[in-house]
Structure formats: C-alpha cells, structure tokens
Design goal:
- With 172 residues, the chain is an all-alpha fold.
- It folds into 2 domains: 58 residues; 70 residues, no CATH class.
- Helices cover 59% and strands 0% of the residues.
- The protein has 5 helices and no strands.
C-alpha cells in the first residue's frame, strides 16, 4: 500500500472547480457560437452549403466537447498533465497572472473599435507578457508594437481583410 504523499498514490477524486469551470466555459462558448451563427444573413441563392455551415460545425463541436468535459468533471475525472510537462496540478492559482491576462483581453475587447487593432493588440500582448512574469516591460512593449503592426499590415494589405485602424487611421 502506498502512502498518501507517494507519487504512485491515486489522485483524490471529487469535483475539481477548475476542470468544471473550463468545461462550462467550453459549453458557453459553443452556445455563443450557435446563437451568433443564426444572426448570419443567408442569401436564398445558396444551394446546400451556406455561410452558416462551418460555424454550425464549430458550434456543435464545442457543445459536444464541452458536454463531454462537463460529464467528466462531474464524475470526478481530473485533467492530468502529460508526462513531459513540468506542471503541478495541485499548485495554487496565480491570480495576479490571471488578472494581467484578463485585463489584456478586456482591453482588447473594449478598445478594438475606438483605438484600433494595432493599439489594442499591442496592449493585449504587453499585458500578456506581464502575466507571464516578464521583467523587461520596455522590450515587451517594443515587441508588442512591432508584432501588432506586422499582423495589421499582413492582414489588411496581404490578405485584403479589414481591421479597425482606430487612432492610426491614415498612418498605416
């Protein structure tokens, strides 16, 4: 028999709040995609495969995976790191990192239309670097700006897509 602290001992079962939260987030994302898919205008000229086809596939895929993960989480199954990962699944959550990264995503969402893609994405990348404990903020900011500009130019000029220029309208 192994002791409770032995690496060979079975992991404690029970509902993992983190695993359940992830599962429910996948379900919520699937529901969001599904609802938004039906807001896509469909021209009656489409024979079989219209603009809703692939978003519906993604929606149902997310709902299926989310349901599978939710059932597993409720049965006490826990996500285990791969053998090659250097991870401790029992380590406490670093809320400061979660906060920096969440702030970056929130800033991206709130500033994208007003400030533009380059500014909001640079802020997202810079705050993400802070969340990953980078101790070189000026270098991170420079990399974030260069990366944002390169992506903006590649998508707008290379692929012909429209991204909001925001405050840099006429400059880029």
């Amino acid at each position: 028999m192994t002791s409770p602290s032995s690496p060979d001992s079975p992991r404690p079962r029970g509902i993992s709040p983190a695993d359940l939260a992830l599962a429910l987030a996948v379900v919520a994302l699937g529901v969001f995609f599904l609802v938004e898919t039906f807001s896509i205008d469909v021209n009656p000229g489409y024979a079989r495969v219209g603009p809703r086809f692939f978003p519906l596939l993604v929606s149902f895929g997310l709902l299926g995976v989310g349901a599978w993960l939710t059932v597993g989480a409720l049965r006490g199954e826990r996500a285990e790191p791969a053998a090659e990962e250097d991870a401790d699944p029992d380590a406490p959550i670093n809320w400061r990192s979660v906060g920096w990264i969440s702030l970056g995503v929130l800033a991206q969402v709130l500033l994208l239309d007003r400030a533009g893609f380059v500014v909001s994405s640079a802020l997202l990348f810079w705050l993400g670097a802070r969340g990953f404990h980078s101790d070189r903020p000026l270098r991170d900011l420079a990399v974030a700006v260069v990366l944002s500009v390169v992506v903006y130019v590649a998508f707008t000029r290379g692929l012909g897509l429209t991204l909001p220029p925001g405050v840099l309208r006429g400059v880029l």
